[in-house]
Amino acid sequence: MHVVILAEFATASGGAEKVAVESARGLAEAGARVTFIQAVDGPADALLDHPGIGRVPLSLPDVWSLPAWRGAVAGIWNGEAARRLTAALAALPEPADCLHLHQWSRAFSPAVLPVLLAQSAPLVLTLHDYFLACPNGVFYRFDQGAPCSLEPMSARCLAAPCDPKSRLHKAVRVGRAAALRVAAGRDRLDVIHVSDASLARMAGMLAGRALRHHRIDNPVRVAPGAPAEPERGDAVAYVGRLTAEKGADLVAEAARRAGLPALFIGAGPLDDALRAQGAEVIGWRSPSEVGEILRSRARAVCAPSRWYETGPLTIYEALAQGIPAIASNRSGAAEKVRHGETGLVVAPEAEALAEAFRTLKDDSLVARLGRAAHAAYWQAPPTLAAHAQALLGLYGGLTDEAAHHHGDRAGHSNGEPVVAAMR
C-alpha cells in the first residue's frame, strides 16, 4: 500500500507534526510505502530517514512569516499551495492508495482540500484540534480564559473577541473557517479522533456535515523498560509549550502553594512569568533527554489544560515510564488516567492542583501510583506498530470501499461514529 502523509512541517515540534512523523515511520516499518509531503521548508526528523519513506517538500512559506496582508490572504486560501500540491501528486512515481492530512492551518490552507478530494484515493484527516469546526482551532475563549460555549460560526461566535492575538486575526480565522466549509463541499470526509472526549465533542459540533468519525489513539514512542522510581524525584514536571491555555501558570502556582519545586521542560510566552514565580524552566530538550530528566526528577507529570485538549502526549509518555500523571478533567488524555490508581484527574484550578500536589509528598503513594501506571500502560500500549496497524486497517477498508464504488467517494453520511479502535 502506498500512503501519502501530508503535514506542514517535517519535524516533531508540536503534537500534530510529531504524530505525522511517527505514523510515517510506523507505517514504513509495517511494510507500507510512504510519501511524506511537507508544506514548509525546513529540516526533517531523523525518523523519516527510512528506505520506505520518500519526502517531498513543497517549499511554501509559513503564513506567520509573511507580511500581514499576504499572510492573511494565504491563510484563508493559498492558491500556490494548491498548485504545488497538484504538481507533486501528479509527479509521484506510483498513485497513492490513501491520502492522510494532518494539518492545513499554517501553509496548506483550505485550498488543498479540493485537490485532495479530486484524487481517486480516499482522504483521511486526523483532528488534532478543533479547526474543522472552530475558527481559532481550540474552542477556547482567550478573552475569558475559559472553554468556549458558543456554536462555531454562529453569529455570537463571529462577534466574540476570542482570538489570542486580535480581532483582525479573528476575522482572518473566520475567513479561513468559511473557506474550509466551502472547500470540503458536500464530499464525505473520514476523520480520525485521538480521544473519546474529542470524538464526542467534535461529532456534536460537526453534526449535519458529511463526515464519518473514526477513533485511533496517537502513537507513543517510549521503549519498554523498567518503571521509573518517581518517589526519588523532587519536582512536579510540565512538558510542552508554556501557555495559559495549557495551564503552565497553574502548575507553578499550585506547586508554590504545595511547597514542591516545579520543573518546566519547554518554552513559550510564560517563560519569564514562571521564572519570576521561582519555577525552574530549562527550555526544549530532545525526546531522549526529556525521558532521562523525567526519570531522575519527576514525582509526577502534570498537564492541566484549561482548553479541551484532544490528547496531550505527555500524559501517555509519563504513564509509559511509570511516572504518575496529573491530567486536567478537560483533557482527552484524562481518560487514560485511573484516578487514585495511576495518577489523578483534577480540575484546572490552582487550589485543586495544589491539593493534588500535596498528596505527592507521600513517597509510598507516589511509588504505588507509578508502578500501577507502568503496569496498566504496558497491558495495551499505543506503540508505533499498533498505531500503524490501526491505520492500515482503516486505509484498507476505505480503499476496498472506493474500489467497490468505482472510485466515487462522494456520498451521504449520517454522521454516526464509526470506530476504528486502537485504545
TrEMBL record:
Matches recorded under InterPro entries: Glyco_trans_1, Glyco_trans_4-like_N
Keyword entries, A-Z: Glycosyltransferase, Transferase
A Pfam match: Glyco_trans_4_4
Gene source species: Methylorubrum salsuginis
Record bears the keyword Cell membrane: no
MF-aspect GO terms: glycosyltransferase activity
Protein name: Glycosyltransferase involved in cell wall bisynthesis
Glycosyl transferase family domain residues: 228-373
Similarity remark: Belongs to the glycosyltransferase group 1 family. Glycosyltransferase 4 subfamily.
Domain Glycosyltransferase subfamily 4-like N-terminal: 14-132
